[in-house]
Amino acid sequence: MIGVSGLNVVQGLPGFFFTIAMPAVLRERGVGLDVVSISYIVWLPLALKWLWAPAFDLYPSLRLWTLRLAPMAIGIVFAFLAIFRMDGDVLPIIVLALVSSAIGASLHVAVSTEVILRFEGTARAKANAIQVGSLTFGAFLGSSALLWLGQHFGWTATILLSAGFVVLTGLTGFLLRPTSSFAAPAAACQVSFFLPNKRVYVLMTCAVIAALSDGFIGVWLIDNGENALDVALALGSVGMLMMIPAAALAARMVKLMGCTQTLFMLMAAKATLLFGAAALPYHSVSGFTLAVLIFGLSGAILTAFWQLYMDETNSGSAASGFAFITSVEAGLLMLGGIAVGQLGEATDVRAILLCAMAGCLAASLLSLRIVPKISRQLN
User: Fold this and answer.
1) Which of helix, strand or coil describes residue 85?
2) What pTM did the predictor assign?
3) Which domains does the chain have, with CATH numbers?
4) Which of 39, 135, 146, 298 allows an S-S link to 12, with CB 3.0 to 4.6 Å?
């Protein structure tokens, strides 16, 4: 668990810097929503990781070296950010984000495979809550603490310090030794890319539409007169840290009610919050409160979805199956984020929030139609 926690922190710090902090800063400096939405291109490696994921099933030793060396590679890539400035050309930063995302995608597959193979049932729900909590702590560092340190100690020193922290935290990967519980290597070659329950993909699509608000909730605050540093601190500290107890709560709900009933309640709650953000008159206190609550719910929803995906994945091809379903999700997020950026530029950011609210309602209702794999097996 120490290894799993540390490696999720490694994924969260650079990942959420590029997806949360950077869009807020760019928007404050007058960049249009159509350009800000291009930052969603960092999801591309996550959408393509299914191409190389089968190798993690065939060769457990490859997972071993990924768990140990990927954090060092991420730290080195992140250190190159010290060369560039946020008020300059964004293209080099996007390139570094893509490289970091590609390495992080491989690390995510390796760590998630270990969770699938080592845990079952409620124990897996607890493991996923710990994963989300650790990822959230890394997100707090990358989207809030990093900007605060940069303002007080300078951009170069902060980036290099963060890169060093990633490398040191990544040493926890040496605590993990990959589980090799496959019947035979050939079993990993017979990868079932499509989950038995096809409704999961429809539910995922609706949930992705709902999740598109997360990348623009900071933009919504800025468009209502808040400054980027306050937004980054609120969402990257209070909002992100709220995800930790929210993930623990979701794990408890999964244990008591199952992941589909949990998703029904969580998605309905998020729809209510999004409606309040889009329809009610804006006030600074209520605006930040809604944004923080929306972020907290995102952590709970992620925990429930990871439980659903892992329960539906064949343990004989754990890396391939989980990588494929999360690759589809990442691809939808990337395309959807770019699309709603164009929508927001043509109208305003409230249209994005209303679109996400509709996705929440659809996902909430559809979750009741999902029959978990364990129930199908009992039948």
Assistant:
1) coil
2) 0.74
3) 2-177+195-374 (1.20.1250.20)
4) 135
